[in-house]
Amino acid sequence: MLRPGDTIGPYRIEREIGRGGMAVVYLAYHTRLERPVALKVLHPHLQGDTELVERFLFEARAAARLDHPNIVAIYDAGSAGGVDYIAMEYVEGESLADILQRVGGPLPLEFVISVVNQVAEALDYAHHRGIVHRDIKPSNILVRENGHALLTDFGIARAASLQATTSRGTILGTPEYMSPEQAEGKLVDGRSDVYSLGIVTYCALTGGPPFQGDTPHAVLHAHVHEPLPDARQRNPALPVGLGDVLRTATAKDPAHRYPTAGAFAKALRAALHPTQPVRPPAHRPPPQATKGTPVWLYALVGFLLGIGALALVAWYMFGGRIAPGAPTTPTPEIVAGSVPTQAPPAVVPP
Questions:
Q1: Ramachandran region of residue 34, left (φ > 0), alpha (ψ -120 to 50) or beta?
Q2: Which of 107, 115, 146, 219 could pair covalently with 175 via S-S, beta carbons 3.0-4.6 A apart?
């Protein structure tokens, strides 16, 4: 385990910020470029596994080809002192998993749709380039304070054209968010990521994953065989139409799902349409200010009343009396259907 002050190549370790099954992520500082990075270091007991090291470095090769505002950038990859590492963009904020744990329940619908839309754009971009993420889960979705979401950790991503090179039939991914075909060790495409994004969305809208069990095998069995529980039973405030959207995204047969992540996000936006990134929920929402009558409305009413009073006085002094001996003008007769040659004077309401 690395400690603050240790160095790997040009990187100085500041502190640990994350840990997974394959690697530890540290906040590090590039001493020559003078910028912070997220440094992902393979666990020491895995350094000698050639296949795992190759899979680990595949993350750098795959993600380095992806240049998208909703994908964490890869800066560097290498080995120093027998330690394999990947240097990535450091994102200040929280993971979606952190937000779920902090809130302790369903997240606001507008926020969820905003995050899903951004992740869907990142996935469609990667899928179009033949890369399947294979591990979409809340901890791999980072959210800045302004609501900007980024997808990270392509550690088990595979180029679709290279899937046949997997020799052990290893099942890669996180059971709670894994597609049925991935759970069964079958070849996967972008629709597997659509399924996982649907499960992540379910979790964000209800506060927890749909399938849980005592063992990973039990969870995988549920993904393959059990129907998706009704999200509205866990969160009755959800719109009725979202149930069909979630069921389509998580259909057991990939052919019955939305063909792309973007299509899934579009279906979610049919219920609500945030046009800008939505900030994550605060620890304690600020109290709502009581709305009173705007000051300008009082001024406008006073002005109109003053004008009306002046008009009334003027009418009384000059228009309300007929001078003695003044001739009277008869009112012209207007025949129905005819157009008067001279319009009657306009009456300004007081």
A1: left
A2: 219
